[in-house]
From TrEMBL:
This is tRNA(Ile)-lysidine synthase. Its EC number is 6.3.4.19. Belongs to the tRNA(Ile)-lysidine synthase family. It is found in: Cytoplasm.
Amino acid sequence: MDHVVHSFISKHQLIQPGQTVLAAVSGGPDSTALLHMLTQLREKVPFHLTAVSVDHGLRGEEAREDLAFVQTLADQWDVEFHGTSVDTGSYKESSGKGTQEAARDLRYRFFEEQMYARQADVLVMGHHGDDQAETLMMQMVRSARPEAVQGIPLRRPFACGEIVRPLLCVSKEQLLHYLNDRSLPSRHDPSNDRTDYTRNAFRHRVMPFLKEQNPRLHEHVQAFSERAAEERSYINEQAQKVLEYVHFSEDVEKFVQFSKQTFKTFPLALQRTAFHLILNYLYVKQNEDISYLHEEMFMNLLRDEKPNRSLDFPGGLKVVRAYDEITFTFADENEDSSFRLILHPGASVSLPDGSSVEAEWSWCPEEPDAFTYVCEDYHVNLPLIVRSRQPGDRMEVRGMKGSKKVKDIFIDQKIPARTRGTLPVVTDQTGEILWLGGLKKGGRQRGRSSTGPWLRLHYKNKADA
C-alpha cells in the first residue's frame, strides 16, 4: 500500500526533495503507519524528517505512555523527535471552549511553534480516506451550501509552510493491514470508541452502512473533494469580477457598499459566492452562525422591490438596502448622531461624519454647484445654525410654491435612510431653513439689482474631504 501513498504524494507534489518535514504522530494506527511510510519515502526522496507529538493531559499516565511510545518509534527509525505535554483542562476552563476544541487549539499551537522553530516546509498529518468520508457526510448534514461541503483539504497554508495529508487516498482498513503485515505496534485511544462525540457517532453508526454499499467509498469521496475544491477555486476567482464593483471601507469601522442593480447583472452562482467573500472580509474569521438561511435572506433582499429594507445578521452585522445602495455594516443605526452648531461668517464647522460647512462674505453671487449657497445678508438673522434634521422640518424650496417636508425631499432624492441624519440643515436665528446641504436651496431669491455683499456657504462633504 505504501506505493499508493507515495504515488499520491508525487502526483500532488506534497513533499519535495530537500524539504524540512514535520509529521504529527499520536501513536495511533494512522499516524504510526504515516511515520513509517515517510521513513520509507525518505530513502527515495531525501528530506529532513521530524516527528512531533502532544500529550493533551486528558488521560493521565496512559497519554504519557503514548508520548513515550512515539519517541521510542522515532529513535528506532532514526527520526528526530519533539514532544510536549499541555494542560487542556485549564485552557478549557479559561477559554470557555469544549474539550475537543481546546485540545485542538493547544495541539496546533505547538505544531505552529515547531514549524517556525525549524522553518519547516511541511506539516504532514494522518487523516485518511475514511476521515474524509465522515467529514463530507457531517458537512452535508449541517449545511446546504456547496462551498461548505468540501471535506478535509489535501493541503492548506500553515505557519511558515503548509499542512498536507497524504493518507486521504487510503482507508482505515488499509492502514491496519499495513501495520499488521509489517508487525508494527500502535497505541489505542479509548476516547475514539465513544459515540457521544459527533464524529465518532458518524464513524460507528453511519459509515459502516455506506461502506457496505461501496467498499471504495473513500476513493470516490476523495475524488469528489478534490474536484469540489478545484471548482470552488475557479468560482472564487470569477467572483473577484463582482468584487471589482464593491466598495470595501479602509476605515477602522468596516463596511461594504455596492449597487444592487450592478450586483444583479452577474450570474447567480457568482452573486452567492461574492456574498460569502464579503462576509469573510467583514467577520475576518468564519462565523459558524451564518447558514444558507442568511444567504437566502440576502438573495430575497436583492429581489424585493421595496426601496428600504434591512437584515440583522449574527455578530451585530446589518445589511441595509436604501434604493439601489446596499450596505453591510456593524454600525448601530440607533446611535444618536444629532448635532447643532453655530456658524459665523468667516468661520467653519465640522460635522460628526467628517464633513464641514464654511461661511464667508463674498462679492461673487454665483452658485457653481449644489454644494454652494449664496444669499443676501439682510435676508438672514445671524449667526447661522447648522444642525441635523428634526421631525416635522419643512422648507420653502426655490422655484416652488409653498413649503415641502424635508422627509419628502429625502425620499424624492432617494437619500438612504442611514445617511439622512448626517446631511446639514442650515437655518438662521428665526429657524427658517435656508439650505439642505447639497440637495435643495431655500430662502428668498436674490434680486436682479442686488450688488452684495453676499453670504456664501460651502458644504464640503466627506467624499470630497
